[in-house]
Design a protein that fits this description.
It is a single chain. Helix 2 packs across helix 11 and helix 5 crosses helix 14. It is built from 15 helices and twelve strands. The longest helix is centred in the C-terminal third of the chain and has 19 residues. The chain folds into two domains: about 200 residues, D-Maltodextrin-Binding Protein, domain 2; about 100 residues, Periplasmic binding protein-like II (D-Maltodextrin-Binding Protein, domain 2, 3-Layer(aba) Sandwich), CATH 3.40.190.10. About 45% of the residues lie in helices and about 15% in strands. The radius of gyration is 23 Å and the shape is globular. The strands form three sheets. The chain has a five-stranded mixed β-sheet with strand order 2-1-3-11-4, with helices on both faces. Strands 8-7-9-6-10 form a five-stranded mixed β-sheet, with helices on both faces. A two-stranded antiparallel sheet has the order 5-12. The protein is of the alpha/beta class and about 325 residues long.
Length: about 325
């Protein structure tokens, strides 16, 4: 009798161990972002467990510049990029800084940031005319915010050719070159203009007030990857949106500042407060629910049509955007 009970217990345990429900393993996702406060929602999603809640294990890489980022996503080294909308247009249209053996299949699936782009100059620069024949820093010559700078300068009497350009990579590298006196000016995405301005560097131009709304940072991926990983992409979108909503809630202000300081060490509290003000403005900054802005996209396309090389008649913004994954991810929210 005892042997029978022992045998039954053994069989029951074996059934539970081998036939019971398996523990779900997190889906691995490779994300590439630009460093700095513009990635605050990503920091929150990592720190507060929004990615984990969606069953994602996200490996985050900070890019030194847009060329590295686009090359990496095209090579399959990364699944998702947070990158300017214009970068996707440039490479899809063959106007990017590099070419590929296969046609790019990049697309934008959500927004991220509207505008918040400033032309920051040396303390001694008082007018646009003072930039004539000076060296200006750019990420790449033909993509991203460089074309915006071309428009801003030409609108103020400085056509291409009246200044020199130096490729320096992402905003952090350009700000470093500016503060070291190696360049006279550069386009800076908020909130990375705050510290230079506190140290005497000047804001000569502001994109939104001078050119209108502009779709800046956006969520992007390869169409082929998205088609084969729809659940992972939708999970990422939900996590990013949830992190953004948490960040926006004023009750979380103190904890959000702590998270900012954890990912960007040695940042003074006053600067973090200014970063929050800049990125949660009513008119620009982090877009509510990361919703893509068609009007801002049209601004980007108009600028690219003017300065992109080779010259092209660009199609509608919908050619580069597919919000199907976004809509599906948030339809129950």
């Amino acid at each position: 009798m005892i042997w029978e009970l022992t045998m039954r217990t053994f069989l029951l345990l074996a059934f539970v161990l081998f036939c019971g429900p398996a523990i779900a393993q997190p889906a691995h996702l490779k994300l590439i972002i630009f460093p700095g406060g513009l990635s605050w929602p990503i920091f929150v999603a990592q720190d507060k467990g929004f990615f984990a809640r969606e069953g994602l294990e996200v490996k985050v890489t900070e890019t030194p510049g847009s060329v590295f980022q686009i090359k990496g996503i095209m090579a399959g080294d990364f699944d998702i990029a947070m990158t300017p909308f214009d970068n996707i247009v440039a490479y899809q249209e063959g106007q990017g800084e590099t070419s590929f053996d296969v046609p790019p299949d990049l697309f934008v699936f959500m927004g991220g940031i509207s505008s918040t782009l400033r032309l920051i100059v040396q303390p001694g620069i008082a007018t646009f005319a003072d930039l004539r024949d000076k060296t200006l820093g750019v990420d790449a010559l033909s993509t991203g915010y460089t074309l915006l700078m071309y428009r801003l300068l030409e609108q103020n009497g400085l056509p291409p050719g009246s200044y020199k350009l130096e490729r320096l990579g992402g905003t952090a590298s350009r700000v470093k070159a500016l503060t070291e006196g190696r360049i006279a000016a550069t386009m800076v995405s908020s909130p990375q203009e705050i510290l230079p301005e506190q140290n005497g560097f000047r804001r000569l131009g502001d994109i939104q007030s001078m050119l209108g709304r502009y779709q800046a940072l956006s969520g992007a991926a390869r169409r082929s990857w998205a088609a084969s990983h729809p659940n992972q992409l939708q999970s990422f979108i939900r996590a990013y949106v949830a992190a953004g909503e948490w960040l926006t809630d004023d009750q979380n202000r103190a904890e959000a500042a702590t998270i900012y300081a954890r990912y960007i060490p040695n940042t003074p509290d006053a600067l973090i407060a200014k970063a929050r003000e800049a990125m949660l403005s009513e008119t620009e900054g982090f877009q509510p629910r990361a919703k893509f802005d068609p009007a801002g996209a049209q601004t980007a396309l108009a600028v690219r049509k003017q300065y992109g090389v080779p010259k092209k008649d660009l199609p509608d913004w919908r050619t580069y955007v597919d919000e199907t994954f976004y809509d599906e991810a948030l339809k129950a929210k």
